[in-house]
């Protein structure tokens, strides 16, 4: 055990010193790997929002700083990594917030983003596609397809993020796989999604398969090109992640998600986000800890053996 108790670790992710926005503009954003929070919550559900998600995930990550996991013996803190604090947003102005997020993301290298609601993925992909000069492959772990043209009467919402990403050419649909899908969806949206070339693996299919087989399927879809991971915490069953705005029964177990992610090393990962943690509905920090752990597993892939 470490000499410093976990409750005394700094507030940044994995105990990294979280710097002020002014300080990190000059320093932290130059790190090879940046952790950033995006507390965007535009209120498109009937439940309390996700603006406190980044802070909750950072707090829960203190449970991960004491040693490494024997499954892979990697320590993400060995990376050139910085917690660069939270991005600025324009409260109440969705287009302006998306523009701000995109511009701030463009200043960073490899970005791991803590949301916030799923709409934050859109400006992150915009910035990354511009930097890389083309669309990315995408692993989207979620209960929902998020390819509705509108969501709760809004064009820009957490249920329409990948409709826009596909239409804008930010992702390559035939290199996009959605894993854990199980929410109700209208047939038109479902057919449109499949018609674009997206691979959809329902939660039921995942339960009838295994992490090695699912990881192999993800690898086959993503291929060798640059790819991105967008992990909505409601990909997990509410038993493992109750603290989210739109829970759906029948989801992945935490161990299943870990087993899949741990088998995805060596892919050309270019960034990740972990979204939709709603602390107001959490119990004993288990949702925030699950979110912190999935981000930690992703960073472990980058740290290598």
TrEMBL record:
Binds 2 manganese ions per subunit. Its cofactor is Mn(2+). GO terms for molecular function: agmatinase activity; metal ion binding. The keyword Acetylation does not apply. It holds the Pfam family Arginase. GO terms for biological process: putrescine biosynthetic process from arginine, via agmatine. It comes from the Bacteria. Signal peptide: none annotated. Its EC number is 3.5.3.11. Mn(2+) 1 binds at residues 118, 142, 144, 146. Keywords: Hydrolase, Manganese, Metal-binding. PROSITE patterns: ARGINASE_1, ARGINASE_2. The keyword Manganese applies. Mn(2+) 2 binds at residues 232, 234. NCBIfam families: agmatinase, PRK02190.1. Belongs to the arginase family. Agmatinase subfamily. This is Agmatinase. It comes from Roseicella aquatilis. The gene is speB.
